[in-house]
Amino acid sequence: IITGYKQLIDRAHARGIRIVGATLTPFAETFKGLPTEGYYTAEKEKIRVAVNQWIRTGGGFDGVIDFDKVMEDPAKPRYLRDDYDCGDNLHPNDAGYKAMADAVDLEI
């Protein structure tokens, strides 16, 4: 993922285009109780955390939107906030999308 982001950043910058990155949102227990329940794994969580750290601390983006911090449950950071979850532990509901929109700094 990071290698792909670096390529996108380099290509955009080579053409004088600014590029804004966004952190990956929590997704623990995604699709719990459904046939696709195994989508979330501890290994994927490690990757998500590493990618988010890279995005936040010098990944080369011209700006960063931290959707992870907006969407995470403060008591359980690997999970979406209940009030922002559409019910599958992956996709936001209307309130979640509103919170994400509100997190975008239009000046970046």
Q: Could you please describe the fold and organization of this structure?
A:
β3 (72-73) and β4 (76-80) form a beta hairpin. The protein is globular and about 45 Å long. It has one domain (2-102): SGNH hydrolase (Rossmann fold), CATH 3.40.50. The chain contains 4 helices and 4 strands; from the N terminus they run αβαβαββα. With 108 residues, it is of the alpha+beta class. The protein has helices at residues 2-14, 42-56, 67-71, 94-102; strands at 20-22, 63-65, 72-73, 76-80. The strands form 2 sheets. A two-stranded parallel ribbon has the order 1-2. The protein has a two-stranded antiparallel sheet with strand order 3-4. The longest helix has 15 residues, at 42-56. Helices cover 39% and strands 12% of the residues.
